Amino acid sequence: MRKKSLGVNALLNGFRSALNLIFPLITFPYVSRVLSVDGMGIYNFSNTYVNYFVLIAGLGVATYAVREGAKYRDNKELISKFASQIFTINIISTLVAYFLLIGSLLIFSNLRNYVTCILVFGLQLFFTTIGTEWLYTIYEEYQYITVRSIIFKIISIILLFILVHSPNDYLWYAAITVFASVGSNILNYIHAKSFCHIKLVRDTNWKYHLKPILIIFASSVAITLYVSSDTTILGLLKNDYAVGIYGVAVKIYTIVSGLISGLLVVTIPRLAMLIGKRRVKEYNHVLQEVINSVSILGLPAAVGVVMLSREIILIIAGEKYLNGTLSLQIITWALVFSNYSTIFNQCVLIPVKRETKALRNTVITGLVNIGLNFIFIPLWSYDGTALSTVIAEFMVMFLNGVSARDYVGPILKSKKTIKSIFDSVIGCLGIAIVCTLLKIGISSLILRTVLSVVLSICMYGAILVFLKNQIAMEYLDKIIDRINR
Fold it and tell me: Mean of the pLDDT values across residues 409-417?
C-alpha cells in the first residue's frame, strides 16, 4: 500500500474537523431567526437525545477497529475477515440501539411531541454504521473523506436555504443536519470494496473482540457523562442565562480543540500499525514528532484565543455574551492539557492495549470534575465551571501520562521536546506583544482581529525559524524547495 503523508493527512483531517464545527456556525444564525423558539427546542432536545443511542450503536467499535485493523491493512484477506467481523458486531449493536430507542418512545409518554424529530435524527444510527469510516481511517484515506464532506456540506447549506423558511420547518432542518453529517455514508460503504470485501458473517470471534470493545465503550460513556455534567450541574445550580454564557465559551473552545485534535487523529492508525507489527523504533520516532508538533501548535493556539477572547465572542455570539470572556480565557488553558492527554490516550494507551487504564483514569477524573463543579459553581458560576474543566483536563493528562510513562517519559525528557516547548513559549510572547499593540492601535473590531491572527502567525513562525526549531525549519525547507521547482 502506498504510504500516505502524515503532514498532508493532518492538514486534510484538520480542515474536515474545522468544516464539521464551522457548518453549525454558518447555519445557526439563519435557523435561529427563522425557526420558532419551540421548534429549536424540539430540534435541540431530539438531537441530544438521539446522540446517546448513537453512542450505544457505536459501542467503541471505531477506536478498536483502527487499533486492531491497522496491522492487517497490507493483507487484503486478513483485513476482509477482520472488517467483516467488526461490521457484524457494529450492525448488532445498532439493532440493539434501535430497540432501546423505539422502546423508550413507547414507554415515555412525555416524548410524544418529539417522536417525529427523534426518528429523523435516528437515521444517524444506521448511516453511521454502514459508513464504516473506521476503515478509511485504517487506510488513512483522508483526502476522500474530506472531499466528500465538503461536497455534502455545500449541498446541505443550499438545501437549508431552499427548504427552511418558517417556524414549522424544524423537521426539514433535522433532516438536512442528518444529511450533512452521514448522508454520504452509503457511498462510503460502496467505496469500501476497493479496500476489502466487507459483509455480515456468523463467526465474529466474540471472545476476542468483545472485552476490549466494551472497555473502550465504557470509557466513551464516562467521557460523555463527565463532559456533559458541567452544563447539567450549572443549569441545576444556577439558571439558563449562566448555561447560555458558558455554552458560547465551550463552543469556541470546542472549535479550536477540534482543529488541533483533527491533526492528531491521523497519526493513530500509523502508530497502531507500527506497534502492532512491533516496529518499536519507528513507533517512537512518530510519537516523538506528534508530541513535538503539539508542543508547537497547542500553546500558541491557547495564547491566541486568550488574547482575542473578547473579539472572538463579539464576532461569533454578540455583545450580550461578553460576560463569558473570562470563562473563555480560563477554559482555553484546558486546550494545552487535553492535547497531551489525547496523545497519551489515543496514541499510546489504546494502541498498546492499555484501554483498562484509560477507562480508570477517565472515571477518576469524571468523579473529581463533578465534585469540583458542586464546589466552584456556587462560588463563581460559569467561571467556576470553566475552572473545573481545566483542572479535570490537567488531571486526566497527568494520569494518562503516568500510565504511558514507559513510552512518553523518555520523549518528554529529551532535549528535542524540551527545546520545542521552550521555542513555543518564546514564540507565544511574540503573539502576546502583537495582539496587545494592535488592541492599542486599531479600533476596528474585524480589522484588529484579522491583523492579530495574521501577524501573530507570522511573528510566531519567524521566532521559531530564528530559534532554529526543527519543525519550523523542515516546513521552511519544503516551502523553499517548492518555490525553486
Answer: 88
Length of the chain: 485
Q: Please name the residue ranges forming H helices in 332-469.
A: 334-342, 355-403, 405-413, 415-441, 445-466
d(CA 404, CA 357): 9
Of 425, 456, 443, 457, whose CA–CA distance to 311 is shortest? 443
pTM: 0.76
Query: What's 436's DSSP letter?
Result: H
- 113, 166 in Cβ contact below 8 A? no
Report the C-alpha gap between 441 and 324 in whole angstroms. Answer: 25
Nearest C-alpha neighbor of 168 from the set 49, 31, 50, 47: 31
**Residue 16 above 70 pLDDT?**
no
Tally Cβ neighbours within 10 Å of residue 15.
18
Using CA atoms, how far apart are residues 158 and 178, in angstroms rounded to an integer? 14
Left if phi > 0, otherwise alpha if psi is -120 to 50, otherwise beta: which for 132? Answer: left
- CA–CA separation, 4 and 412 (whole Å): 26
pLDDT value of residue 10: 59
**With 60 as the cut, is the pLDDT of residue 459 above it?**
yes
Q: Which triple of cell numbers denotes residue 14?
A: 484538520
The DSSP letter of residue 290 is H
Cβ(89)–Cβ(96) below 8 Å = no
CB-based burial of residue 20 (10 Å sphere; 0-12 exposed, 13-18 middle, 19+ buried)? middle
- Quote the CA–CA distance of 433 and 423 in Å, as a whole number: 16
For 293, counting Cβ atoms within 10 Å of its Cβ (0-12 exposed, 13-18 middle, 19+ buried), the class is buried
